[in-house]
Hints:
This protein is of the alpha/beta class. It has one domain: Ribokinase (UDP-N-acetylmuramoyl-L-alanine:D-glutamate ligase, 3-Layer(aba) Sandwich), CATH 3.40.1190. The chain has 8 helices and 9 strands. It has helices at about 20-30, 55-65, 85-95, 120-130, 140-145, 155-165, 210-225, 230-245, and strands at about 5-10, 30-45, 45-55, 75, 100-105, 135, 170-175, 185-190, 195-200. The strands form 2 sheets. It has a 6-stranded mixed beta sheet with strand order 3-2-1-4-5-6. Strands 7-8-9 form a 3-stranded antiparallel beta sheet, with helices on both faces. The chain is globular, with a radius of gyration of 17 Å.
Amino acid sequence: MTAIAVTIAGSDSGGGAGIQADLKTFSALGVYGASVITALTAQNTRGVTGIHDVPPEFITAQIDAVYSDLQVNATKIGMLSQPAAIEAVAAGLQRHNVKNVVLDPVMIAASGDRLLAPEAVEVLRRVLIPRATLITPNLPEAAALLGAPEAQTESEMKEQAQRLLALGARAVLIKGGHASGAESVDFLVQPTMVARLAAERIATTNTHGTGCTLSSAIAAGLAKGQPLSDAVREAKAYVTAAIAASGKLHIGQGHGPTHHFHKWW
Length: 265
């Protein structure tokens, strides 16, 4: 069987994040990728200049078209900027009994531009997080979801991840890329275990789309039948290598993308 993953996310016209990054990641990791586009963004490496939301009924039409035909093994969910879009996706997941859902609660772009309407945060917590196999918030996103200050220490990261578990997700990967220190430390927190995942912190401005790439790499691993912990570890290794190789690309004048195809180019 061909491993199939679907990305439900926004389009990045600059090609470094969103749907474009997800499909590149799926391909790089040997998984067939399909997509449900939730928003069009006018953006590049320097920022987001416009967002055009896809009507909820057309998000629903895309979901029904894809899941009624393809045997989907895993789903990554990214940018959902409006409450109605979140509701449409949650209903689609339930309607098609979707498994292996990786939710990246995208709120702010690498450029600092807000991608999630403030009123949508509560809807995300209520209807989508409980349907997730894994959620992958960075430190600002975890704080926003909890209405709490941003975690400053590893113990605070673990405590916030436990609070996010209580919202209904089956696992939480809280990411420390926004922290400081020689290592970039993430924690994979499940009801019965906590795993510390560390990698050398790479000094680079090429960080556009790293969160999208990580979550879609995890979905690719799940699509291939990997256990969650293995999928997370391999995804972190892939993203770390893609960031390390990003200097080989010369894309744009702002936050450049990771090098999704570093093994081949």
